[in-house]
């Protein structure tokens, strides 16, 4: 069986195997917190302003305006806008195995220590050609520039703040769904029954808040209770950017207690 690889160090002060474990997901409480080192300390004024906002729309304006100024996101180089978190999100939502997807998976690997085991192809080891090709793609100078990992650090912290501020029903976990064609294509750690297993999901993966939407993407639907601390982004928290279509959640992977149904 494929054995996922975890780095010995990361930026969250929790060992990667622990953060990726099923036990962690089941133990999260509304008071749990995961912080990427330095983010809140260096950007405390931003998060104070977001905490004081009256609505998600106002929070979004504060967040987008802050990043536009800090990272010069309106600037153009040779007629093209500089690399941004918004470009990565759009690329992921179009195709998780795109170059933008590689950068996002690389950010998860860097910050949380969880190495992807799939990008365009199976990555069975960090010593394989598949891992080398993924690494080369995630470092592509067209996308991985303009301190884009630091932009994603702020996006994660923003999402966590928005959940606490405006989505108390997501604490400590939210039920999410993912449509797939074959359960056996996934990394099954342990089976508990015909429709119940512990599955290791890739280091970044999309889910939907709507079961009916998930059904459109496969013959089977996975059902997972995702702790809020493992949500990077979800539709509706960044306004005027066209992300609200499929109630999509970008979830940091690992081992999850997973139930599945057939259609």
Structural overview:
It is a single chain. With 263 residues, the protein is α+β, with helices and mostly antiparallel strands. It contains 10 helices and 10 strands. Strands 5, 6, 7, 8, 9 and 10 form a 6-stranded antiparallel beta sheet that branches. The chain has a two-stranded antiparallel sheet with strand order 1-2. A hairpin with a 1-residue loop joins strand 3 and strand 4. Helix 6 crosses helix 7. The protein starts with 15 loop residues before the first helix and ends with a strand. The mean pLDDT is 93.
What letter string, H or E per element, gives the SSE order?
HHHHHEEHHEEHHEEEHEEE
- In round numbers, the mean pLDDT is 93
Relative helix content = 25-40%
Distance between the termini: 27 Å
Tally of helical runs? 10
Largest sheet, described in full?
A: 6 strands, antiparallel
In the predicted model, the low-confidence regions spanning at least 5 consecutive residues are: none
Task: Give the amount of beta strand, in percent.
Answer: 15-25%
Structural class: alpha+beta
Give the C-alpha Rg. 18 Å
The global form is globular
How many strands appear in the DSSP assignment?
10
Task: Describe how the helices and strands are arranged.
Layout: H1 16-19, H2 22-27, H3 39-42, H4 44-51, H5 56-70, E1 76-77, E2 80-81, H6 85-94, H7 99-112, E3 118-119, E4 121-122, H8 129-138, H9 148-166, E5 173-180, E6 187-193, E7 196-208, H10 211-214, E8 220-227, E9 231-234, E10 248-262
Antiparallel strand pairs: 1-2, 3-4, 5-8, 6-7, 7-10, 8-10, 9-10
Helix pairs in contact: 4-5, 5-9, 6-7, 7-8
């Amino acid at each position: 069986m494929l054995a996922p690889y975890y780095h010995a160090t990361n930026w969250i002060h929790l060992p990667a195997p622990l953060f990726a474990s099923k036990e962690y997901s089941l133990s999260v409480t509304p008071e749990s917190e995961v912080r990427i080192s330095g983010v809140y300390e260096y950007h405390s004024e931003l998060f104070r302003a977001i905490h004081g906002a009256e609505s998600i729309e106002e929070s979004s304006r504060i967040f987008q305006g802050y990043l536009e100024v800090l990272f010069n996101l309106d600037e153009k180089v040779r007629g093209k806008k500089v690399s941004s978190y918004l470009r990565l999100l759009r690329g992921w939502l179009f195709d998780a195995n795109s170059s933008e997807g590689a950068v996002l998976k690389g950010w998860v690997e860097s910050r949380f220590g969880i190495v992807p085991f799939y990008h365009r192809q199976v990555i069975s080891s960090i010593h394989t050609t598949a891992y080398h090709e993924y690494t080369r793609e995630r470092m592509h100078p067209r996308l991985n520039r303009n301190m884009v990992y630091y932009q994603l650090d702020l996006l994660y912290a923003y999402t966590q703040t928005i959940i606490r501020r405006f989505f108390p029903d997501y604490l400590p976990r939210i039920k999410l769904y993912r449509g797939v064609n074959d359960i056996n294509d996934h990394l099954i750690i342990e089976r508990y029954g015909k429709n119940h297993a512990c599955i290791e999901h890739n280091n970044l993966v999309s889910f939907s808040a709507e079961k009916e939407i998930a059904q459109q993407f496969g013959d089977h639907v996975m059902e997972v209770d995702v702790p809020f601390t493992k949500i990077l982004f979800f539709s509706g928290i960044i306004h005027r950017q066209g992300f609200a279509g499929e109630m999509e959640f970008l979830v940091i992977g690992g081992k999850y207690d997973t139930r599945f149904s057939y259609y």
